[in-house]
Each structure stands twice: as C-alpha cells, then as structure tokens.
Amino acid sequence: MPPLTISDIDTQRANSGLLSTTVAGYTSSDLFKSSNSNRHAESRSLHHRLSVESRNFFGSELKKSSNQVFKTHMIPLGTGRPTSEFYPWDSVTIYKTPIRREISSACSTNNANMLPESRTIAKKGGDYDIARGLNYSHAAGLPALLRFVTEHVELVHNPPYKNWATCLSCGSTSALEVALRIFCNRGDSILTESYTYPGAVAVAHLLGVHTIGIEMDAFGLMPDSLERTLRTWDESRGPRPTVLYTIPSGQNPTGVTQSLQRKNDIYQVAEDYDLVVIEDDPYYFLCMDLGLDTVEKLNSADRDALATASGYLASLPSSLLALDISGRIVRLDSFSKILTPGLRAGWVTASDQIIDKFIAYYEVSTVAVSGPTQLMLLDLLDTTWGHLGFFSWLDQLSIQYRSRLRILLNACDQYFPKEVCKWTPPQNGMFLWTSLDLRKHPIILSRDQKEHNLSPADNPACDIEARILAKALEKGVQITMGSLFSTNQTPITKVYFRMTFAAADESEIEVGIEKVASVIREEFAIDTFYKEIREEGSS
Amino acid sequence: MPPLTISDIDTQRANSGLLSTTVAGYTSSDLFKSSNSNRHAESRSLHHRLSVESRNFFGSELKKSSNQVFKTHMIPLGTGRPTSEFYPWDSVTIYKTPIRREISSACSTNNANMLPESRTIAKKGGDYDIARGLNYSHAAGLPALLRFVTEHVELVHNPPYKNWATCLSCGSTSALEVALRIFCNRGDSILTESYTYPGAVAVAHLLGVHTIGIEMDAFGLMPDSLERTLRTWDESRGPRPTVLYTIPSGQNPTGVTQSLQRKNDIYQVAEDYDLVVIEDDPYYFLCMDLGLDTVEKLNSADRDALATASGYLASLPSSLLALDISGRIVRLDSFSKILTPGLRAGWVTASDQIIDKFIAYYEVSTVAVSGPTQLMLLDLLDTTWGHLGFFSWLDQLSIQYRSRLRILLNACDQYFPKEVCKWTPPQNGMFLWTSLDLRKHPIILSRDQKEHNLSPADNPACDIEARILAKALEKGVQITMGSLFSTNQTPITKVYFRMTFAAADESEIEVGIEKVASVIREEFAIDTFYKEIREEGSS
C-alpha cells in the first residue's frame, strides 16, 4: 500500500470518520488516518517511562462523560456550555495577505477558485462556525482542524508504526512543559544539545530536572557523545537520563540541521538505551538551503518541479518521527514560525498512549486551543489553502526568508572582522550563530599572547559578551547573547551571539549588522591594537 | 481618597503608565492601578505557602532579557519573533450581535457613537493591531488589555491591600492548575465544597493532592465545618490543609451563593488558620436574583437606577477579594460564561508575589493567551464597549438568563413530582441542582419502608442515578449526574442532578424538563406504586 499523497485526500476523507457536529464533540486522529499505518506493528509501550504524576492520570471524568457521540439531537440540559445566542460576536471576516496570490497559482490545479480575498465565518453553518468554534472544544482540537493536521502529519512523516496519533497543543513551549511532566520526576536529568532553547532549560528548572548538554558539530548533536554520556553515567548524579530533548532542524540557537545519517545514529542510541526523544522541530519547514535558489538557473522543467508545492514536500528531509518504528519519538510542531506566534498553537505526534496523556493534561489545564485561533487555522488551512496550498505557503515563505538570509550573510561578509568572527549559514530556521574568538581579544592577547592559558576563575567572556550587547543596544541594535542558551559552563575561549533575519524590516538588516560589526571591531580593537599585534607578528 | 469610579477612568489613564508599543512589550498591572491602593498596607508574604516546585522558580531568563523597555526603535536582530510582513492574515473584521444595541443605549452618555456594527483590526496602527497582536505577547497580556482588566478589577473589587496585581490567564481551569502547582506538594490535601467542579478534583488528582469536602448549607460552605476540619485534622492523613478552593457565587454544581456574612466568616477562618483561598468565581456576574426583575413594577426612577450599568455595578455583592486585607485570596475570573468559553481566557488577581509566580509559570508553558483571543477582547471591551458598556452587557446577559431560569423553574414546578424532587432557585450562575429523595424510591420503600436503614454496601443510588441518566438520553435529553461532583462517598439517601438553562435553545427547555420529569416519575413509580403507598399511608 503506497503512502498517502495529496491526491488521495478526497477519497481518504470520504472513507474516514465523520466530523462530530456537537459542541466540544468527540474527535480523535484515529478517525482520520488512512489504513496505511495498519501494515506496521504497534509501538512499544512507554508505560515504564511515565512519571509518578502522569502514570495514573487519565484526564477529566466530566470531559469523558460528555465524549459520548449521539446520532440525534439531544436537548442539552447537562453541560455548562452557554448557547451561542448570547455570544457578543456574530461573525468574523479574515483578509489574507498578498503572498497568497503566489500560492493561488501554485495550487491552481485544484482550488484556485477557492481563494477569495476574504472569508467570513458565520454564527452557524458548515464544518465550522462561531457557534461551535467559540464554545468549548475537545482538547484534541475542532474535528475538522484535527482532520487536516492528521492528514498533514501522514503526508509529511508517515510514521512507521501502527498506533501513532496527533492532537493540537497550545504551542510547542506548552507541549514541552506537558511532555516533561509526563516523563520526568524531580531529580531526573534530561539530555539536550549543549546550547539549546532557554525555555526548555527554564521548564526543566521548574520541574527540578537537570539538563545535561551534549556536544554538537556541524551535523548537530553527536551520537558518540550521547552514547558515552549514557554509558558512563554516574548514578550519584541521579537516575540515568531517559529523555533526550533535541531541535533537529535549524537548531536554536546554533542553526545546525541534523543530517539523515545523524538522525539514524541518534535514533539507534535511543533504541539501545530505551530513550524517549522529544523532537522539537519548529524550524523544519523553513528551508534555508541557499543552493535551492540556483533552480532559477536550471531549465524550466526542473525549476517547475522544485517550485511547486509537491516538489517542496518531496524535498523535505526525513524527521526522527519518520524513522520511529518503536513509538519513542514525541514530535512537537508549531504554527509560530510558519504562520504567526500569537496563535499559541501547534500539534504533537506520538503513540496513542502518549497523546492520550497530552489530552488528559490539557483537559484539566488549558482545556483546548483558543477558539478564535482554531477558527482562523481551519479557515486558512482547510477551507482556503488545502494541503497543496499550505505546502506552497511554506515553500514561498522559505524562499522569502532565504532572500533575507542572503542579505544577512552578505552584510556579515562585508562588515564582520573575519579575524575573530566565525559563522556558518544555517540549513533551516531563522538564526545565525556567530562566534567570536576570545583568544584574539586584546585583553587576552596582552595577558598571555602565546599560551592562552586561562583559568575558569579568570574568565572574561561574560564581561566581554555583556559589553558587546550593551554597546549594540546603545547603537540601536538588539542581538541575543549566547550564554543565555548554554546548558554547561560558559566557555572561556569563545563568545557567541545569536542573530535572526526574521524580525527586522528587510531594509534594516544591513545597517544593523554594520553597527554590530563596529561594536565588535571596537571591542576587539581590530583597527588599532589587534592590527598592531598582527603587524608585529608578521614582521 | 474615594474608590475609583467609571468616570475617573479617563483621568486615571492619563496619569497611568504608558502602553508599550513593541512586540511582546513589557507590561504590568502596577502601571494601571490608581494610587488608591497606596493608602493600604502591604499584604502578608505567602512565601511559606509556596510549593517545592514554585518556591525557587522565577520564570524564563529569555523572556526577562527581552522585558527591557527602549525609548527608541531597536533593530531587532535578537529575538525569534517573525516580522508581520509574513503573516498570512492582513486584517480581521468582527461583527457584533444585536444584544449590543441595548448596551449602546445603556451607555449612550459616553460612547454610543463608538458602537459600529463591525470593526476591522488592521495589520498596523493604534493601541493594538495584527502585527503585535498576532506576534508573541507578554505573559501578563497585551498592555491595553491588561490595562482594561486592571481597571475593571479596581472598579469591582478594589482590593484593600497595597500590592495587589492582575494578569491574564488561559481560562480559570488553567489558572487553577497553576495555582495548585504554586501552592501544593504531592500528598497535600486541599479543602473544597463537598460537591464541586470536577475539573478541580481532576487536577488535584493529577498533582497527587487529596480533596476534602466541607459541608454546605443554603448560604454555601459552612465556616464551622471548615474550622472543625482544620482544628481536628489528623496529621496521619498528611499535612493539615493550607489551601481552600471555593466557588462563592452560583456554586458549581449546587447553584448556592455565599452571603456576605458567610464570606466574612470564611475569611476569618482563613485568617485564623493562615489559609490560601482560591476564589473561583466564573458565575459572579450572572446575577439570577429573580427579585431584581420586579423592578419592572417599580417606579421609573428606581427602575432606571437598577437598569443602568452603574446600577448593576453597585448591586454586585462583595467578593472575598474585596475583604482581603492580608493578600491570601487568589481570585480567578473567566470570560467563558460571560462572553464565550472558546476564548480560553480569564484573569487572576492576587498579591504581586503570587501574580509574579503565575506569569513565571505561563512564560514557560502557554507563553500568553492566544493573540486572536486578545485582539477580540480588546476590540470588544476597550474600544467598543468601555467599562460602562461591559457592565451593561453583564446586566443584559443576566436579565436574559433570568428569563431562561424562570422558564426552567416554571417547567420544574409544572412537571417534577414534588414528592421526591427538591430544588432551590440559584442566586447566581447557570445551574439548578435537584435532589431526589431516595427514601421514597419503590426499591427502598419495598425493602424497609419504615426505617430506611440502608448500609453503604447496599447503596442503590448509583444504579438509580445511572438509570435516570440513560432513560433521559433515550428520550433525547442530556442532564449531568450529581455523583460526578462529589468529593466524598456517594450519599445513600439522595440522588442529585445538575441542570442548566444556558445551553439549550430557549424553546427546548420546557419539553426537556417534561421528559426528565417523566423519567423520574417512571423511576419512582409516582403514578402507580408510590401513589398506592401514599394512599395506603393516608388511609
């Protein structure tokens, strides 16, 4: 049975479960998967990996009592779900941005005539409306939105085990908090990249969970280092870690993307040590491979293949989820970086055992993703774009961001002093990670030019980092200091900065980099002290 | 210094802190309070009441690093907050419901000309726009929305201590989860009403926290019973409870509202035993006092006074927060029952020490309330309605719900067999709590008509409750069984049902009740067996 493709979606929907039409109607991704996953084996149980807190928790009795699906209308005298008669809003009309037009032509084969400038969501009617969309919703999502997301997951990742499942999350930061509560007890340690998303470190700190940074190279987290950390774990530090948290694409903050070989090797270590792997992948769809834009120089057939949405889909790399035969990957996706962050929405994919835990946690906390958010997503993704349109959007967005990345890289090339600055263009995401070679800083050079034998107690890195940050702000540019991302001791030979091309106006990027460069040149005395040293050295 | 009134708001705003205009700009309710609270003393510290988890947690370093407020524009090369240029939405237009018209006339003195049929939120401009509203937001809320909510809290509750603070929550269920994590460790017990919101019991169960139900009467939770439970606490059950969770208005499920005397007495016990009190008050604004509608028979001056928004405001009872001189009340408010549940938004008021903890928790989980939700709230509450319009909405909504309550009560009066059914009209909220006298059930009567000496092992209540629920569903009516709300053992002399007049179409309420009544009559054999018994008894 071949994997699900976009052209199968209509048939797939005709054969899939009905959309519940009641308020907060029961739904499950199981209703919307193709039978394709039935040919795979079930996942292994992760029961032994559940925390004390999550192990015996199955959600809200009240919610479950209202999960019953009725064939006929019931007079609702039971649940406290106010009638839509008393909502203060009658309808919402959403206008789309101009970028939509390119998408319209990209997916012109199937729904160009469904792409109006605006769309109105009415009080009642259709697969979604204000009456249900602004009432309580099932924690997994509005049925039609969960259907779209389930299909999307199957199209992109096609997880190779039977009982995978998907639910919405209130954004990946929220999903990460829930994931750590599901899998960790106080005193546990989790494995992360040595520089990582500070939100992960913060929530681990909240939960009394230690973060153990694993070394990285140009292909991401190093499996050897991961394996060694596990093999040589000293139990006096607490139980050996059972959870790996990794950002595989356009890693935050380093911008590094794991190669397929690297993903396979990491997965093998996870299998050997029975790890749960939290695959936090918000930058997966933002493809920054500048080589792709050379298609402009290709012949038209090749160009068309790469420029269409299905070409984009085919070009996406394998995720860890796509390699996961055991059901040990908990994949977090987010709308934040690909639509807008304020939606506070994303989706989680894992075995049904784990997704049921996510739903249970959400039932007693956030209850569901915001209704206005879900309505905007449904309207955009399902009704307006469809799957092809969504991939086309992601393709177009990647192209636009690549153009900004190129501006950033050109500016770095032009202004940054290469004697001390190093950076590598990212393959994904929105960050450029820049290192400054501290051994070439005047303070260090003047102290001990030959041996660079700094002791940790004598570490000037923090001062230098803070000074550069402050001077950049004085000049009107905000950059993010690398130490904020460190899980281990601050290194004493490097200072790092994270920069992004995603937030500023395009016209500001070059002047911003020029100012940062001038701060670095000044801090490192590139044009005076360091130049003299160099001249002395070469003389 | 007199308390803040609606007419002071313009001056108050002129004197209050500026609204940050940057993405996810720093904000705090401290910027928006009047100087009125300065005349009060500071709250007592609740540090000794913080859980192991929350005590040393202060939120996200990353968020705090971007809390800095700049006077001039900064080129944002640091934070990963995508530019609004790449949002797929250009604007959102929201149409209001007809009920708005009454509000328009109610607050016609100050902003009738600000009440258009619809309003468009543009990409950029004004106090709020899509560019910032759909980007990351400060965990406390968008500045202009937090300002409105802070003013609202001061207008309604005017907390009598200096350092009270407010932040948005992702709904009260979410706020309750966070509150219990802030104050409870595994193995702790919290005090609740003997019948309470199942979501509270579920989240306590998740956290390994026991719920101890306190007896209630017609005025709500009984202070004597509360005090006795604390005084006679057996430490072998774990530490003596330090948290009381209470729903003071239109209690879920009983519909009972605490009198002012009752609130004072409960607060005194809280002071004596140094309790933290979680005041979960989603039904506070839904005033179901049917006596109020006799104003229709009053002279026109009295009627006008009660029918205007400021009359409504004056008629609101004192909350526990309004009595709180020590800062031990954590008040949870929600938009769910007064606007729509799908917003997933509410607000929390407590001492700044506790609000800082809420913000810290939200920073590493949900990050912020959904942007579309916040934009809809801002547009409706602040721009369109203003404070007077909001109170007018709440007044109008209460009037409409009272009309539905009257339909429900009339139907109960007409159809329910009074031999076995008892109910009391609620003073607030949306629930009617009905008890069935099990001692009059044929099974019991036939067993032991005189003494009713049932042993718990012999308890038929669950069967009877389940049978009534199932039969009602067969007839097309959904009601909620009382045992779902019980914190203690199921009683053996009563069966309870919770019914609401808020969810069904108004025209369905009577027929729904008629059907439920017929199920009860059948179950209790009112028209056959029980009638015979009665006749025998009276003969």
TrEMBL record, chains A, B:
Domain Aminotransferase class I/classII large: 128-515
Ranges that cross the membrane: none
Keywords: Aminotransferase, Pyridoxal phosphate, Transferase
Gene Ontology MF annotations: 2-aminoadipate transaminase activity; aromatic-amino-acid transaminase activity; pyridoxal phosphate binding
Pfam families, sorted: Aminotran_1_2
Superkingdom of origin organism: Eukaryota
Cofactor(s) recorded in Swiss-Prot or TrEMBL: pyridoxal 5'-phosphate
GO biological process, one term: aromatic amino acid family catabolic process
Matching InterPro entries: Aminotransferase_I/II_large, Class-I_PLP-dep_aminotransf, PyrdxlP-dep_Trfase, PyrdxlP-dep_Trfase_major
Keyword Zinc-finger included in the entry's annotation: no
Keyword Transferase belongs to the record: yes
Family: Belongs to the class-I pyridoxal-phosphate-dependent aminotransferase family.
Protein name per the record: Aminotransferase
Lineage start: Eukaryota, Fungi, Dikarya, Ascomycota, Pezizomycotina
